[in-house]
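quick one: 2-acetamido-2-deoxy-beta-D-glucopyranose bound model?
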Amino acid sequence: MAVVVIKVLSVVFASFLVLVASADTTYNIHEIPEEIISNGYPAERHHVVTEDGYILELHRIPRGKDGSSSNRPVVFLMHGLLSSSQAFIAIGPKSGVAYNLADAGFDVWMGNARGNRLSRNHTLLNPNDPSEKFQFFNFSFEEIGMTDVAAMVDYALEVSGQSQLHYIGHSQGGTVFLVLTSMKREYNEKIKSAHLLAGVGYQDHFPNKNISQLALFTDIIYQMSLSLGIVELFPPNTTAQTNRIEPDFCAGDSRYAQICEMLGIRELMANDVNNDTEPKTEVAGASLKQVAHFGQNIRDRSFRRWNFGALKNLAVYGQLIPPKYDLSLIRTNVTMHYTVADTLLDERDVLAMAADIPNAKVRKVAKDTFLHGDFVAADDCKELVTDYIIEAMLQVEENLLQNKPTEAQAILPNGDVISKDAADVIPLGTPIEKPSQSSSTNVASNLLLKTCLVFLSMVILY
Ligand SMILES: *[C@@H]1O[C@H](CO)[C@@H](O)[C@H](O)[C@H]1NC(C)=O
Ligand SMILES: *[C@@H]1O[C@H](CO)[C@@H](O)[C@H](O)[C@H]1NC(C)=O
Ligand SMILES: *[C@@H]1O[C@H](CO)[C@@H](O)[C@H](O)[C@H]1NC(C)=O
Ligand SMILES: *[C@@H]1O[C@H](CO)[C@@H](O)[C@H](O)[C@H]1NC(C)=O
Ligand SMILES: *[C@@H]1O[C@H](CO)[C@@H](O)[C@H](O)[C@H]1NC(C)=O
Ligand SMILES: *[C@@H]1O[C@H](CO)[C@@H](O)[C@H](O)[C@H]1NC(C)=O
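yep, here:
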């Protein structure tokens, strides 16, 4: 009954790639290592089995283009919601985060969360089976953090023979870091430094009003969707691109277009990336429960565990409302990178998280139009973000060599360095404004309409 499976049971198999990839510029999401190789880098494909049976795929760039391999510190990269390890290579060797890190001397590992197209496999459960899928997709970002990331971190450390690594997480890749290091504190010891790129945690000031209004109906929408058999978003045979989301297929079936609209999936991805002239990343899928859990957190303005409802909460957690993720327990040095144009994460929430994490810094991207997805997808992410991270991680390495602590410091608004004390006194922003009467009436009638449509589509489908 209780919470989640925790420990990594076993590391099952690793299939090393020795492949010569084609020179094609288009590639299938299942050919990420081949794509990396075609760009002149070595690449490996690995699999890890979690204690609860999910088979996860990892990708590794063990060396840089020049092939030198000695003493490369490990960096682990974790993608965002509906995404995959492809996020870190999609824009190519010039600005792709994974390539830049390999060039800078790191042993680069990229994870894939359970349920995405690369980790959509299980030792016992078949995700395509009409009844087993309910159990397979019965997970949220908590399981991804506490079980998957834990297993993948342990695996990368075991294979590389190291005892610690650096962590970089984009969006939900930041959420799962916060979950893991606050819930399983021994993982703080395994992470030398963490950089969260628009890492989502607190959502007290969620910027997108459409989604936060929809979030009021999270539990109803989730239950209705389950009753329609929808447990997965963007299953393998749907062809959406991250910057070209069509709502019709989000549940893999055009009959569910209305539900999909209701879930706010399209809004979640819209305007995510600045330069969307060319779709480059395949939407890799996720469980509906992941989105529903974010919805609960937005609705409740609280970064906490899955809400089963009062009675089951009491049975599972021993209390009526779910426990919060306690960020004050995180011991790792964390830098939270954020941008003011982000439509999914408010500056005030970033500063509030940084205030609660003992060893946190914040760094605002020095470009006001930089968007949520741009951290991995924009050509200028290298100059604006990745180069800073590389320098910071190399500094940690140098300090470890010399066994000398770094200065406590924080980098703020336009990349200026200030002391952590000064970061602490930054005002956490003004209280959120109440919507005007007329706009809230509009939102309410809009919602009523949408709710009616969902009921209608349920009736039609039955
Ligand atoms: C799932 O994992 C098994 C190994 O347990 C493997 O034989 C099978 O090919 C995998 N299926 C997919 C779709 O990757
Ligand atoms: C999902 O997991 C919860 C426990 O986390 C359990 O109570 C529930 O019955 C599970 N549902 C399914 C469909 O497996
Ligand atoms: C909210 O939805 C309306 C209509 O559905 C749209 O015009 C508007 O741009 C959306 N707002 C945001 C912040 O996405
Ligand atoms: C995807 O489509 C192919 C052929 O159209 C089919 O063989 C395969 O089973 C489908 N995969 C899933 C997961 O539905
Ligand atoms: C968008 O991409 C094109 C082609 O890669 C490039 O020429 C242009 O400068 C980019 N625009 C922005 C705003 O980055
Ligand atoms: C974490 O940051 C503190 C303060 O900046 C520093 O003393 C310490 O050495 C850092 N730890 C690591 C592992 O870099």
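The chain has 16 helices and 13 strands.
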